[in-house]
Amino acid sequence: EPEVTQTPSHQVTQMGQEVILRCVPISNHLYFYWYRQILGQKVEFLVSFYNNEISEKSEIFDDQFSVERPDGSNFTLKIRSTKLEDSAMYFCASSRTGVVTGELFFGEGSRLTVL
Amino acid sequence: GEDVEQSLFLSVREGDSSVINCTYTDSSSTYLYWYKQEPGAGLQLLTYIFSNMDMKQDQRLTVLLNKKDKHLSLRIADTQTGDSAIYFCAESPNFYGGSQGNLIFGKGTKLSVKP
What we know:
The complex is a heterodimer. Helices cover 0% and strands 50% of the residues of chain A. By secondary structure, chain A is mainly beta. By secondary structure, chain B is mainly beta. Chain B is globular. The N and C termini of chain B lie far apart (41 Å). The relative contact order of chain B is 0.34. The model of chain B has no long low-confidence stretch (mean pLDDT 88). Classes of the chains: A mainly beta, B mainly beta. At the A-B interface, strand 4, strand 5, strand 9 and strand 10 of A face strand 4, strand 5, strand 9 and strand 10 of B.
């Protein structure tokens, strides 16, 4: 069964360093998303991406965040200069049709720890 | 702003029914969802309900929606140990406003099933 894969599963980084989280969405999907979950908190929407551009983003997704689909298969989230509060589980998701039936397929997540 | 609330823990005995409750604030939500997260895995869509429905049944799962009280519940009949997971309630506000995936999640209810 097709699935969304994310790498790395866990990354530890120093504050101020750049981090790139990678995702391979399901191959025939057109809509891509990043969500995050700080420990003990809710799963929060960061950004959605369609037709090679950001279609929607939340207040969390400020200038230190960027997304890219560099080669037609990978979908990356870059955090330019990490802060302690960026420590969270980051989930990538993809969808064939967008939020028509809420059928977002999620990856297993990348845990980011900022020291 | 939009908010989704759910209790954090639920413990049941195998074979009993589980009822996980959720309240939401956005009356314009078109779809409401239940996602399941097993340990080490991503979020998996369990079921969803359209806002003009009161109930949806899918095998052991029954979703009840009280739109007046903005209350959503998920009932799992004959709960099994394999149902142990975290269950997330989510809403999709402003779908007809063009949202591309801005799901609002609750914190998740951890269901523990005792043999």
